[in-house]
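Quick one from the shared queue. A colleague (R.T.) flagged Acyl-activating enzyme 17, peroxisomal isoform X4 as missing a structural entry in our internal table.

Convert sequence to structure tokens.
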Amino acid sequence: MKMREAAKLTNIGKLLERRGKELLGSSYKDPISSFSDFQEFSVSNLEFYWKIILEEMNISFSVSPECILRETPLHPGGQWLPGACFNPAENCLSLIGNRSLSDVVVITRDEGDGEAPVTKLALEELRSAVWRVAYAIDTLGLKKGSAIAIDMPMDVNSVVIYLAVVIAGYMVVSIADSFAPNEISTRLVISKAKAIFTQDFISRGGKKLPLYSKVIDAQSPIAIVIPNRSSTSSIKLRDGDISWHEFLERVDESKKFEYIGVELPAEAFTNILFSSGTTGEPKAIPWTTTTPLKAAADGWSHLNIGKGDVVAWPTNLGWMMGPFLIYCTLLNGATMALHNGSPLGSGFAKFVQDAKVTMLGVVPSIVRTWKSTNCTAGYDWSAICRFASTGEASGVDESLWLMGRAHYKPVIEICGGTEIGGGFIAGSLLQPQSLSAFSTAAMGCSLFIIGEDGSPRPSDVPGIGELALGPLLLGASSTLLNADHYGVYFKGMPVWNGKVLRRHGDVFERTSRGYYRAHGRADDTMNLGGVKVSSVEIEKVCNAVAETILETAAIGVPPPGGGPDKLVIAVVFKDSEGSKHNLNSLKFSFNSALQKKLNPLFKVSHIVALPSLPRTATNKVMRRVLRHQFSQIGSKL
């Protein structure tokens, strides 16, 4: 099929074919030629654009909004959907468009069950499961709006629990199942969680990884404990905790009454997620009722997700891509494909084949592993129509290799943030794509590259600098639980057309051909394998590894050929003979400590011994200076 004909069949293409002249006037030609004009329209006509998109996605409001956007000096990001009441989880389970109760909405398989058929869950079955858990949650006696944590792998049970918490009017606290007890505890304390759903252990590669014991060590509130499918006997629970079986028995299974979703105002919190800040404590970012609409809209517009699609994206509810996957599939009438196991081996590759995945989301580090192990060989991925890549900067070689697994279907790059609920920059099926680059600002979003003088560069001029966003973003955060939101995102930012721009923190380059490339973080956080972490968090761990260490500086260094940051640790020893220390042994100790205390995926690539760290006049470590120095030796890392 020719590109222009295929473009007309995309979600945006079909919209423009119907209403292009109405929206863009006589300048409208066709979906490809006029895509950039439509993106500009989505920014200059925010109310009209979002009204159209919410209609296209069949979003149902129990109380209609007074307007789409109300601009006010008190809210730099505006007030979105003021007066509206709705429940995003209830919308996920509704008969949107031409969806029926028999439509398959989840396809799943557990690791090790590769020879068994995939399990399919129809909308009717998902509804019943969510309603039952929602009724059971109500028996806990918690006040509506209370925070309820989920620390589990992303499987059918965790998706059901997530939707049940939201539909019942509570607030999900997202915690990654890889976190150590102190990281779990930090998130429980910040969010003031009143209960937590977890699992006894996780099965990965034939190993049993404890989870419930970590939750106990974190001194969690009451825990509801789901057994792993391979559990042979029930584990002893802490006093007051509840087994999954006992929890579900609180609701008579024969009573399959619909749970009427709690009507939530647009500004209500539905999910607390966390993103590393520069102070060492993770930023607690509330998703409101409107944030799922942003996630779903990105899926609709940039990833072209709709009825008939089967979407797989290895992730976890502890990261924004977990909730993003739920909403961008279910709110768009698509099917979610969940592989309960490691995505790094042939078991996942076979699941993609057997589930007939049409859109596969990845982070580049996963692709790099597939490429090095060739674990996808022999599996038929021909059902894939497109890939999506996010989480970290991708490399050209890996992207080209990935395309080759599915007859060179395109890779749509998308970059965003937890505090946005989706992307601010992306690719599009209606534009020529460049490997490992972005072709457009996200729909409804305006981008600015800040020049050396602190002012935004002209939008059509090549250059590199810190990226800023137009402040009016549907679904974006307007508050933080444990930090000054205005100070983090707006203070000190330039004003453009009377509006203060929103800080994001990434360095981006606009090329002479009009594409964008990511160049890592501008502040003191870094991206390691798709996980944002602050330098301070890493340094706290490294400083305590050996008595001989005076101080450390953790730096994320982008490799010359592209890809995720490499972690380099600058070490200052207490004695002047520090350079004689065995740095290889120290690197092993750093890795052991980081993987135990922060994240098992973190890995130190290089250690550099320095006599002292560069500092500002106010004694702040100048990590940007170190990043520049280490970038010069990037090829040796």
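Residues 394 and 563 are 5 Å apart (CA to CA).
Residues 123-138 form the longest helix (16 residues).
Added to the table.
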